[in-house]
């Protein structure tokens, strides 16, 4: 079984994923694969965005590239066209390996829909949280100011819109900040899968 796990920035996808029992679930962190995808595609990224996004050691400077692409939709689409195919192929390979080992694969991806994962999923978990809660988490976690958080949130405005018409069962988890409440919802989820 493959489960898609999605939600907007700082909704709590990673926190939920960390609560899943490791003896039953194998979580694939697509954001983490994004970092690998950057290092696997340095040449294409340099070609698309120039030398300013490359560090002296030859790696991609995410602190330069991030604000650049989140401020410009076309640049974000260019980056996605470079990295997403690599990430999807790698994540689906990892999911197949997990299934062969008798584990439930969980693809943790904010862009589950736009990256094309939904048709490969048996179920979807959508994690939600109020905007203000997510904004505070983003500042505490990454130091994102309100404007940068707003830009990143707007870039993710489509998340969740097509899930309910996908034909896949969608389970919504509300993560308003109370870890006990989230833990109870995750326990119930695990009991029903």
Walk me through what this model shows.
This protein is α/β, with parallel strands linked by helices. It has one domain: 3-Layer(aba) Sandwich (Rossmann fold), CATH 3.40.50. 51% of the residues lie in helices and 14% in strands. A five-stranded parallel β-sheet has the order 2-3-1-4-5, with helices on both faces.
Determine the N-to-C terminus distance.
10 Å
Order of helices and strands: EHEHHHHEEHHEH
Arrangement of strands in the largest sheet: 2-3-1-4-5
Question: Can you count the beta strands?
Answer: 5
The main sheet comes to:
5 strands, parallel
**CATH topology, what is it called?**
Rossmann fold
Radius of gyration: 17 Å
Count of separate DSSP helical elements: 8
Strand content: 5-15%
Question: Summarize this, please?
Answer:
With 193 residues, the chain is of the alpha/beta class. It is built from 8 helices and 5 strands.
List keywords for this structure.
single chain, 8 helices, alpha/beta, Rossmann fold, 193 residues
């Amino acid at each position: 079984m493959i489960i898609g796990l999605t939600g907007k920035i700082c909704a709590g996808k990673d926190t939920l994923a960390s609560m899943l029992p490791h003896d039953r679930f194998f979580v694939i962190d697509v954001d983490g694969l994004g970092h690998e995808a950057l290092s696997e595609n340095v040449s294409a990224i340099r070609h698309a965005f120039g030398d300013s996004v490359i560090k002296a050691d030859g790696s991609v400077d995410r602190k330069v590239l991030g604000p650049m692409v989140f401020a410009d939709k076309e640049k974000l689409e260019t980056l996605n066209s470079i990295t997403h195919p690599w990430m999807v192929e790698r994540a689906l390979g990892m999911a197949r390996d997990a299934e062969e080992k008798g584990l439930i694969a969980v693809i943790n991806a904010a862009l589950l829909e736009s990256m094309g994962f939904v048709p490969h999923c048996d179920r979807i978990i959508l994690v939600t949280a109020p905007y203000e809660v997510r904004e505070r988490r983003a500042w505490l976690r990454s130091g994102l100011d309100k404007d940068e958080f707003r830009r990143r949130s707007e870039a993710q405005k489509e998340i969740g819109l097509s899930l309910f018409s996908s034909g896949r069962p969608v389970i919504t988890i509300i993560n308003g900040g109370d870890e006990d409440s989230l833990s109870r919802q995750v326990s119930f989820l695990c009991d029903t899968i």
